From TrEMBL:
TM spans (from-to): none
PANTHER family membership: 7-HYDROXYMETHYL CHLOROPHYLL A REDUCTASE, CHLOROPLASTIC
Every Coenzyme F420 hydrogenase/dehydrogenase beta subunit C-terminal domain range: 174-334
Molecular function per GO: oxidoreductase activity, acting on CH or CH2 groups, with an iron-sulfur protein as acceptor
Domain Coenzyme F420 hydrogenase/dehydrogenase beta subunit N-terminal stretches: 93-167
Coiled coil: none
Protein name: Coenzyme F420 hydrogenase subunit beta
Signal peptide range in chain numbering: none
Amino acid sequence: MFKIIEKMELKSINKVISNGYCLGCGLCHAIEKNTEIVEKNGNLVSNYSKKDRGHIAVCPGAGYDIVDFGKRIHFAKNYSYELGWYNELNLVQSLDATLLKKASSGGAMTTISLFMLEKGYADGVICTKYTYDSPTPRPTTYIARNKEELIEAQGSKYCPTSTLSILSQLKTEEKYVLIGTPCQIAGWRKYQEVLNPSINIVLTLANFCGGYRDFREIDHFVHNVAKFDGVRYFQHRGDGVPGLMKIVNNSGREWKYPYPKYAQLSPIQKNNRCVYCIDATGELADISCGDAWIKRITDTGEAWSTIILRNKRAQKLFSEMLEAKLFNIGKITENEVVESQRLNITSKKYRQYKRIKIKKILLQRVPDWYDGIKNVGGFYVDECKILLSKFVHSKLSILYKR
């Protein structure tokens, strides 16, 4: 039995890819220049095909010990099973009206990034925007070096992004801020620790994340819902709280639908690796930001962000920003942060034990997390239904392509 379980581990990049856990994060491309990140079945996937020479050690798709890793990175005073290691929790609202206008919530990440550029703490910010070279939008990672370029990246990207592929283009003499999803930040941390590259990323910012659906969802909204052939603008969220999806076609016609209600119009399921993720709040980033979905905030109709400062470096930077009067600031408790992210935390933290156990009973591979995942919620029947649904959906996708 031990040998069978051992064989089910994700011991190579190729196993990660073949089992559907590749995130298309771009690390393979950064390490092996001949490796590309390609779109396949709506997802971004590495075409890595060489013999694995230790690359699995940096792959975020394979999992990681999130608790021990966070402890070693942050040296923080507080630990929460739901939120990870941290020093300080706050509510913030950018005082820059231009940045707040297009933000998904309180404009925290853009305001922090702009401060880093203007103070000379960073030469560029690694971020992502939509481009429109194809009939439907696709994300492009780039280096923003001023306010105008940062504004282009504003707004949530609920789709695959190959953010870390740009690491191969960075200059060793420059300093960068990295904005990414929790898994992309984890990929950078593993890459940094294992391979010790000469890249100087001085700050990492992660958004809270409930997972994403693939590009087929964007295509569905453009072609089947909005019924547009071509697009010149697309946003998943923006224009107020909680925001809305907006699609503008080449002739200027607009289609809008409120967030998060538009998810009900989508037949596309969540990315497979996202289903087995245990990081809801970017636990390995210096600073994590997300929506403050609590009644006392949402009742105001104002845009605020929750911000988690995970280490002393983040706290020092935040203090400077407060002195410069760049934020309105409010208080939020740990329980309130957990409650504001209840849906994501329930899926990623409380139900994950049963979900992973079922996969292992079926002798199916899963990312290798730490041993402390708690059995505190969910039902085995529900998790079996999820597995069955994803299996049926994958088969229907194959038939649809034919």
